[in-house]
Amino acid sequence: MLKRTHMCGELRSDHVGQTVTLAGWVNTYRDQGKGLIFIDLRDRDGLTQVVFNLRDVDEAAVNEARSLRREDVVAVQGLVRTRVGGANPRLATGTIEVAADKLEVLGKAETPPILPDEHEAEKIAEEKRLQYRYIDLRRPRMQKMLRTRHEVMQVTRRFFASHGFLEVETPLLIKTTPEGARDFIVPSRLYAGKWYALPQSPQIFKQILMLSGCDRYMQICKCLRDEDPRADRQAEFTQIDLEMSFVTRDDVLAIMSEFITTLWSEILGVDVGEIPVLGYAEALDRYGTDKPDLRFGLELAEISPLAARTEFKIFRDALSKPQGVVKAIRVPAAAGTLTRKKIDGYERLAREAGAGGLATVKYTATGYETGIAKFLEPIADELAAQLALEAGDMVFFAADTRAVALRVLGELRVALGRDLGLIEDAFRCLWVVDFPMFSYNDERGRWESEHHPFVMPREDQIQRLQSDPGGCISSSYDFVINGSECGSGSIRIHRTHIQKKVFEILGLTPQETQLKFGFLLEAFKYGAPPHGGIAFGLDRLIMQLTGVTNIRDVIAFPKTQTGADLMTGAPGPADSEHLKELSVRVHLPKRQIPEPETREPKP
RNA sequence: GGGGCGGUAGCUCAAUUGGAUAGAGUACCGGACUGUCGAUCCGGUGGUUGCGGGUUCGAGUCCCGUCCGCCUCGCCA
Q: Number of structural domains, chain A?
């Protein structure tokens, strides 16, 4: 076999005169007839033009080159020389070419079902790209993604190692934990009828590591949650998981801010600047969400006191509800640009978000026009002053319970920012802190953890666990970048009596607590340091760093929305022998679930 | 589980109100061409219109069911 001497993106004018050997895939071929054939050879590094010329090589080699087709794998030996036909400025190697004298076909390709062309990739059905992932991954952009992902992992390990973190692996086959997402479970062969769970996160193990004196832990680990995927969510995903002993919240935020700054600097050469900290309540009030996109303004305004002075029934009805509010969003200079159709779309969006409708008004030099203009007369000047209105602005109103109004305007804000082109090309990070400890689930009639059951209340809030669980503020924090939640953590409970109290609020009986978390409570008894940490969503960080909106594009081998792997055909059936060993019997529901189709390439 | 969009040649798409032999680009096959570079030019092969049923003289098109993919709500401590 011809041994490779260089990569396909490597050769420059400096190499002219050298005899080299390249190996890779035939990206394109251009047969000029008689005895002149060009091959663009591709590997993960780039493209190099190889030329077969009857004037330089024997006829057998030219004939073999003539039979080359796209995606054939070949090795080529030849002389690097300046291009006879002029440079190609679109290629990094565009000034040179390799004049082949030896060709070895290492892997002849059948006609490929899809081609790894960047200009085609956007059009090819994702189903096909997933089915033939090995071809799709040959695209430069996908190679770039794999490389970026690799670099992020390298930077991460280097950063945390240099800050005293130990990389420790935690088990995949673990005990199922109640609450949280649905677990994937694995039958135990040695304990008939018993099951392992796959981890939703290494949460308990990393806390145990703190009790074990590990002091600082990190791991890049797979987490599995059996819930329906979304554009930014897979059942199987990767976390950068971290935990530190003897720290306060601000200690964690400081070092994690430094990590993010380092990451963006090393991967993109971008300075993300000081990362601001925003309270949960303030984030909701100003942006209608706990993961605000700070790349544009359009902040929400609270106008309940003014709204109360109008005769508008929608406003008055909303304000008479418990937690009723009227909130407004000023859209600068939108009166001329927002079409009727767009505004109708926003009204539909508002209804889908739970609102009864969406009140609108235009502000002009002569006052309010259209929509609910007439109702605003009693508060005309004060409203204009509070919202700092200028002629040409529009205002959207949401009047409902606080939760609904915030959700409606929060979603509207994002849609407006996008539609009006207000989103700046930048990375805007922030920490959101001071989340509530619990939220009340009306359906289930009980308190649930806002984050998870091991989150410590903020130090000044501990007594509220007893008196006012709903008002109790936690020590947790979320990392948000450009409106995407990419990390989440907290200071943990390390005192048994507080942990027991939290379990009690969550409705676990002492017996259940003992059964499910007895080992953890026991562990706390024998010397537990205060500790806290965070987990970053690696996939989401890579999405931000590579500018893609689909999590499947940053995972080498992702699954579909129904949890299938279109390349391998997983999930598949287990044979009955195997099931018998595991003491598992399959009991299909009445409506049979068909096997996922295995996608064998046609012969 | 709900809502929305989509599925026609290997790939990307078209096909009028239900009407004749389902077309185009590209890939592939054959031919021409010694400086191309998303090569070009000429010719050709290629179809279970996702699958099953129904309505009709006639279905890619209409109806019912079902499968697959994407977006989304629920869900995601």
A: 3
At A511, is the secondary structure helix, strand, or coil? Answer: helix
Strands A236-245 vs A216-224: parallel, antiparallel or unpaired: antiparallel
Q: List the domain range (segments joined by +) for residue A239.
A: 143-278+429-554
Q: Judge if A356 and A455 occupy the same domain.
A: no
Q: In A113-218, which residue ranges form alpha helices assigned H by DSSP? A: 118-121, 126-131, 133-136, 140-162, 203-211
User: Per the domain annotation, does A125 fall within a domain?
Assistant: no
In whole angstroms, B17 C1' to A341 CA is 29
pLDDT one-digit tens code per residue, A501-548: 999 999 999 999 998 899 999 999 999 999 999 999 999 999 999 999
A331 is a domain residue: yes
Enumerate the nucleotides of strand B whose atoms come under 7 Å of any protein CB: 1, 10-13, 27-29, 32-40, 67-77
Residue A235 lies in a domain: yes
Residue nearest to nucleotide B11 (CA to C1'): A114
State which of A56, A88, A107 marks the end of a domain. Answer: A107
Q: Is there a domain that residue A233 lies in?
A: yes
A278 CA to B58 C1' in angstroms comes to 68
Residue range A334-348, pLDDT digits in tens: 888 888 878 888 888
Asked whether the ipTM of the predicted complex exceeds the cut of 0.90, the reply is yes
A213 and A178 inside one domain: yes
Task: Give backbone dihedrals phi and psi of A38, rounded to 5 degrees, phi first.
Answer: -105, 140
Per-residue pLDDT, averaged over A168-186, amounts to 90
- CA A400 vs CA A312, A316, A350, A396: distances in Å: 13, 10, 11, 13
CATH number of residue A378's parent domain: 3.30.1360.30
Q: In what order do the strands lie in the sheet with A236-245?
A: A166-167, A216-224, A236-245, A531-537, A484-491, A477-481, A429-433, A277-279
